[in-house]
Every structure is written in structure tokens, then in C-alpha cells.
Amino acid sequence: GFKLIRMSNNQRGEPEITIPLQYNNAHWKAIFEKYDLDGDGKISYQELKAMIHSSAYSNDIPTRVVHIIMTKADLDDSGYLEYPEFIAMIHRKDMQGVFGHLVQRYVHSMVPQRPTVFQSPSSDYPDGQYEEEYTCKPPALAMIIISILEITLFLYDVIAYKSVYLSVEGPAATLFIYNPHKRYQAWRYLTYMFVHVGVFHLLVNLLVQIMLGIPLEMVHKWWRVLIIYIAGVVAGSLGTSVSDPSVYLAGASGGVYALITAHVATILMNWSQMEFAVFQLLVFLVVTSFDVGQAVYNRYVLETNDQVGYVAHIAGAIAGLLVGINVLRNLEVRTWEKAVWIYYEQSAAKLLHDPAWQALPTKLKQNAETDGY
């Protein structure tokens, strides 16, 4: 596999070009000789930069690669790049590792690629617009930590009751589950995400958190993804407390659905930068529609007694869409998107305010109304 970068000439408005960063040696030899105008077998840093910015050579090597080439490949600090140094850099193990390529390709298939911004030839070094779309600094630990906590608490309850099916009655579950009769215990609006009913319930949530949450963290930073996740969890409990007040809540489905719809928002807002945008959108829509539809069918058609809080799924999904479109980075802002952001900001504020007000105990609401709030 090899890295793909999409470049476009913003001044001319030309279409994007997909550029492979790894070919065989013959390909790189041809490019090196193309840059070596005087045929002396070496290229200076300034000469290489000038050629990169020229229209004749703009399709071969991205500008951000120039600095990497000169700092990591100029082994003898001569100020010139010779072909052996150039090809050695291309095949550096720390830059071209197999695992790195697997992670890179997976992240690129899940999240939008950052567009390249035109940079004037007077700049000495590539700026942040040319950095990698994803990074492990800071590390993507939010979803990993949450997943570890969910597994730990689930195992604790299973060990306590010596049964997978009774884990929801364990000490941790009893303390953290959303109990409609204990709405005054405010922590339950959030901590119910650590309680799961069965192994399958836990595994499904873990799968989405790891396979989708971590790539989102690597691109949008952990704190943005965590905000969306928590917003989905809280919206799920608040929405359920208003529309389905007799239902207990367990599981991280609200947060998981928030991640899914937030990702759908990034697909829509970064459509031209996405790989497999249509495929991803269809997959997520089918999965979420099937899951929610099954919960509704089981409850109202089959009249099962599992009392799945499907409202939490829907509320979490809405929260993810409204919050995600404002919190996640839009890698290429367009004029029409600013108006959409304003609308979604107002909708998100109302979404969180109304259920929260309804979920308050009656006495607190009466006191607030008396005080003029």
C-alpha cells in the first residue's frame, strides 16, 4: 500500500490530483533526475523548494515533503540532496512501516483528508496545513479509557453475581444505572453508560468506540470526540426521562450513536475530501435504522419486556449530529456551511435545554419560576 495525498491548485481552481508518495525506485529516480537540472547528481534545498512551487513540478512531491527530505535524508549535512540519500529516505522503516501504512489507510478511509492550501514561495518551511491529517500526539486515549472502564465494571458485576445475565443487578450497575425513580441522583444521567446488559450489548458499543471513535480522535483531537460522546449520553438520558419516564437506562448507546451521527456530519460537511463517502453514509444509515427499528418493533409489536430505551438512541443520534457539526473540525470551510453552523448551534442549545428543564424535580422548577428564571 502507499500514501495518497490530494492536492489542488487553489489559484487556478484545478481539480484535485491524487499523488502516490511511494513507488518503485525507477519512479523516484526519474523524478530525482527531473529535478536535477544541471545533471550533477544533487539538488539543493532552495532549488528543490523552488521547483516544488513551480507549476511544472507541482504534481510530483507535496511541499511538506521537502522539509522532511532535507532534514532526514541529508545525512552528511552538505546542504545538497544526493540520490542515495533521497532513496534511503523513501525507504526509511520509521516512515514506511507496514503497521503505519495499515493505520494510515484505515484512518484515511474513515475520516476526511485535509485539503492542501497554497503556500507562497517565500515561506521557508511548510506550515500546519501540510501536516498529517491524523496524529497520535496527544494520544487518542479517551475512547480507550472509557472502553476499559466499561469492561472493568462489567466484569466486576459479573464476578460479584457469578452470572453474565445478572450483571445489571451488580453493585456497580446498581450505583450507576439510570433509575427513573432516583432522578435526583444527577450522576446517573451520565454514569449509566458504564452499565451493560449482557456481553453482546457491551461488544457492540466497544466495537464502535474503538473502530470509529479512535480514528475521529486522531483527526479531531480527543477532547472534541469526548464532548460529542458525553453530549450523546446525557441527551439520551434526558430525552428518555421526558418521553419515556418509566424506563431504566443502561449502556453507552447514546454516546455511540452520537459518534456515528457526528461522523455522518463530517461526511456531509467534507464530502469532497472523503474516501468512500457514499458507502460510509449508507452503511451508517442502514445500521442505525435497523438497530432503532428493531428496538421499536420488539417493544410495540412483539410487546417484549426488555424495555429497551430506544429514545436514548434517537436522542443521542440527534445530539451527535447537532453537537458534532459544531465541535468537529471542518477541514474546508465553505460559505454556505457558516449559516448551517448557526442554525445547528441554536438547535443544539434548545435540544439540551428543554429536556434538562423537564428532567428537574418539580420543586426545583417551582423555585426557579418563583425566582423569575
Automatic annotation (TrEMBL):
The chain crosses the membrane at residues 140-161, 189-210, 222-242, 248-269, 276-297, 309-328. One of its GO terms (molecular function) is calcium ion binding. GO terms for biological process: proteolysis. GO terms for cellular component: membrane. It comes from the Eukaryota. It is found in: Membrane. Keywords: Calcium, Hydrolase, Membrane, Protease, Serine protease, Transmembrane, Transmembrane helix. Its EC number is 3.4.21.105. It catalyses: Cleaves type-1 transmembrane domains using a catalytic dyad composed of serine and histidine that are contributed by different transmembrane domains. The keyword Calcium applies. PANTHER family: RHOMBOID PROTEASE, RHOMBOID-RELATED PROTEIN. Belongs to the peptidase S54 family. This is rhomboid protease. It comes from Dufourea novaeangliae.
